[in-house]
């Protein structure tokens, strides 16, 4: 018994020790030293820098640990690790595209960066921030472990004890491990490339002793079915780190001549106010306002759009008006360079491609994309579906897996809860029906609703094929809990030929809007043949022609679609040596950025609907 209590205590201490500090949001607006650039690395498939030869985690001070200096104290000291320029990688960026030997690598790589730093006065606090590391990151500064994070697509930060920072030669080491695991999120099996590495920005963030950690400044959830009034109400909160009693918080929106001062009521202070003469955000008018929040000496600026969104009966109302979502699914990848997308230029490129197709919406599959993407969507006026990688058959029976999914859900929502573009949080994709899975997914939905009451929650649900002749029914029990009943269908690709669409109809027993979150077929760009030939552009074109004809017969509750997929993307599951060569070829653009014939079918239909709705 004593032993058990001791073990529990150890577990608690280690979890506490390595838990990340609460996320600091709007990181781009903070005072920070960028730690992007060249980092040296060691490839360590056996994790020799982490475990001793008995496979026990090395003691923090052990000179063989790869987080400790690689410089021998004298000519006699043995060193079996070292960081040199010959072995270096660029951060941010996946390792797979940077060196040919990394293309298929899955395992541990140690990253090391040294930097000089002049700390400000003693009261200032420092955090080390990572936009994303795939999948597990163990972070060490000057030989001390700052923390550990798992989840490959969401941000995290660790507080740095000020005494740890030096003026010269700070030694920062990150053990990055992208091994897939049965009890991870995502799990072993996905249809995308497992790009490893420090894939997003790294920053040393400087904040005053009391600082604005996070805030929500968004329009209140609308009265069911109602458009926002002429002076709509903002409802939100400001979260101060190390709050002092009575600390004053100021919020201002200069363009609206709006100013408000409130005294902090605790760590989190609720705010609500009306904004007369507000121009609402929408895809047609993506109006963003400069918003500033300050408390004590801390001040932070953001660009925020204001709109309402809701599922109302069988419709989706944006600012109180029905909207049809002309979408496309996007992977966070730049096919031309065969790498993960990162930063505003990549975001612009991908969203402009979607714009050309005639989209007013994108589904960011199947994990949270770079923050630059959702910010770009805000400024270009593109609605967003944002998703966590609860994909296919993860271990739904495991409470630990549920916790991992919840952690990613929280990080996704926290990072982006001020983005007007985001209208849907998705808790997963094509998860197989069982009571255990439905319970797991329901818990995620409950959590998402606790974190954000103003957006729709959805997931790509399962379809009941063929229980009725010519009618497919979306009656997945998870439909009872989502706001938007979304499903993926591949009629004419994974089942039969495209003309099967002619006699197929769709329905759902749920009195909710219906959305197609995927449909698509593969074609190798530039390969032409008759329409019965798989992988020809003509087959894919036929597929989309039949789909569009079917979509025109969808029930009134049909509110939008995000076909699969914008660009061809890398996938180790796609091994046809002639047409795929490790690529999923369902892109409407090929891997060189050339439009396939099917692109024009969707584009023409989107134009038609746009005219109908405007
Ligand atoms: C799906 C998945 C998507 C795959 C796609 C395909 O249903 O959601 O991740 O890539 O099908 O191409 O099979």
State the gist of this model.
Residues 262-307 form the Glycoside hydrolase family 2 immunoglobulin-like beta-sandwich domain. The chain is α+β, with helices and mostly antiparallel strands. The protein contains seven helices and 38 strands.
Overall description:
It is a single chain. By secondary structure, this protein is α+β, with helices and mostly antiparallel strands. The protein folds into three domains: 14-207, Galactose-binding domain-like (Jelly Rolls, Sandwich), CATH 2.60.120; 223-306, Immunoglobulin-like (Sandwich), CATH 2.60.40; 311-613, Alpha-Beta Barrel (TIM Barrel). 18% of the residues lie in helices and 30% in strands. It has seven helices and 38 strands. The strands form ten sheets. Strands 23-36-35-33-30-29-28-27-24 form a nine-stranded parallel sheet. Strands 3-2-4-10-7-8 form a six-stranded antiparallel sheet, with no helix packed on it. A four-stranded antiparallel sheet has the order 1-12-5-9, with no helix packed on it. Helix 5 (435-451) links the parallel strand 29 and strand 30. Helix 4 (399-416) runs parallel beside helix 5 (435-451). Residues 5-18 have low confidence and may be disordered. It binds (2S,3S,4S,5R)-3,4,5-trihydroxy-6-oxo-oxane-2-carboxylic acid (GCB). (2S,3S,4S,5R)-3,4,5-trihydroxy-6-oxo-oxane-2-carboxylic acid (GCB) binds next to loops.
The main sheet comes to: 9 strands, parallel
Number of domains in the coordinates?
A: 3
Mean of pLDDT: 95
The helix-and-strand class reads alpha+beta
Q: What compounds sit in this structure? A: (2S,3S,4S,5R)-3,4,5-trihydroxy-6-oxo-oxane-2-carboxylic acid
CATH architecture of the largest domain: Alpha-Beta Barrel
- Quaternary status of these chains? single chain
Strand segment tally: 38
Q: How do the strands of the widest beta sheet line up side by side? A: 23-36-35-33-30-29-28-27-24
| Helix content percent band | 10-25%
As a percent range, the share of strand residues is: 25-35%
| Overall 3D form | globular
The first-level CATH class of the largest domain is given as: Alpha Beta
């Amino acid at each position: 018994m004593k032993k058990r209590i001791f073990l529990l205590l150890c577990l608690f201490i280690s979890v506490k020790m390595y838990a990340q500090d609460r996320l600091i949001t709007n990181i781009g607006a903070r005072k920070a030293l960028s730690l992007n650039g060249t980092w040296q690395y060691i490839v360590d498939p056996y994790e020799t820098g982490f475990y001793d030869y008995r496979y026990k985690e090395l003691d923090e001070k052990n000179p063989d640990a790869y987080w400790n200096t690689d410089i021998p104290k004298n000519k006699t000291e043995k060193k079996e690790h070292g960081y040199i320029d010959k072995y270096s990688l660029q951060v941010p960026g996946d390792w797979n595209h940077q060196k040919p030997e990394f293309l298929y690598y899955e395992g541990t790589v140690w990253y090391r960066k040294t930097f000089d730093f002049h700390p400000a006065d003693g009261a200032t606090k420092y955090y080390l921030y990572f936009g994303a590391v795939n999948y597990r990151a163990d972070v060490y500064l000057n030989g001390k472990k700052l923390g550990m994070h798992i989840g490959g697509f969401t941000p995290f930060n660790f507080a740095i004890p000020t005494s740890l920072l030096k003026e010269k030669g700070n030694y920062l080491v990150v053990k990055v491990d992208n091994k897939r695991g049965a009890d991870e999120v995502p799990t072993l099996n996905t249809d995308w490339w497992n790009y490893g590495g420090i894939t997003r920005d790294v920053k040393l963030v400087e904040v005053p002793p009391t600082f604005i950690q996070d805030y929500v400044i968004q329009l209140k959830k609308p009265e069911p079915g109602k458009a926002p009034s002429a002076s709509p109400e903002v409802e939100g909160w400001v979260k101060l780190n190390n709050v002092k009693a009575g600390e004053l918080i100021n919020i201002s929106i200069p363009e609206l001549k709006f100013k408000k001062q409130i005294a902090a009521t605790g760590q989190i202070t609720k705010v609500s106010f009306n904004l007369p003469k507000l121009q609402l955000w929408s895809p047609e008018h993506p109006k963003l306002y400069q918003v500033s929040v300050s408390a004590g000496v801390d001040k932070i600026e953001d660009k925020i759009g204001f709109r309402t969104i809701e599922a109302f009966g069988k419709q989706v109302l944006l600012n109180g008006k029905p909207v049809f979502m002309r979408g496309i699914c996007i992977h966070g990848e730049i096919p031309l360079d065969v790498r993960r997308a990162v930063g505003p230029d990549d975001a612009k490129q991908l969203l402009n491609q979607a714009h050309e197709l005639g989209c007013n919406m994108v589904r960011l599959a199947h994990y949270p994309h770079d923050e630059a993407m959702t910010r770009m969507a805000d400024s270009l006026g593109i609605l967003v579906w944002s998703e966590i990688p609860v994909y296919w058959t993860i271990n739904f029976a495991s409470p630990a897996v549920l916790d991992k999914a919840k952690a990613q859900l929280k990080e996704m929502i926290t990072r982006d809860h001020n983005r007007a573009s985001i209208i849907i949080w998705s808790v997963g994709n094509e998860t197989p029906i069982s009571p255990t899975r439905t319970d797991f997914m329901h818990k995620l939905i409950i959590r998402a609703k606790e974190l954000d009451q103003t957006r729709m929650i959805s997931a790509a649900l399962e379809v009941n094929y063929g229980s009725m002749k010519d009618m497919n029914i979306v009656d997945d029990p998870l439909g009872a809990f989502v706001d938007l009943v979304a499903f993926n269908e591949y009629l004419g690709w994974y089942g039969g030929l495209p003309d099967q669409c002619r006699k197929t109809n769709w329905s759902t027993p749920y009195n909710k809007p219906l959305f197609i979150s995927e449909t698509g077929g593969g074609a190798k760009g530039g390969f032409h043949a008759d329409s019965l030939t798989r992988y020809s552009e003509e087959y894919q074109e036929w597929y989309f022609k039949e789909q569009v004809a079917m979509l025109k017969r969808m029930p009134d509750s049909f509110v939008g679609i995000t076909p699969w997929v914008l660009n061809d993307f890398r996938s180790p599951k796609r091994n046809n040596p002639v047409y795929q060569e490790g690529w999923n070829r369902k892109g409407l653009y090929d891997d060189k950025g050339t439009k396939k014939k099917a692109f024009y079918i969707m584009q023409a239909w989107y134009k038609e609907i746009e005219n109908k709705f405007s």
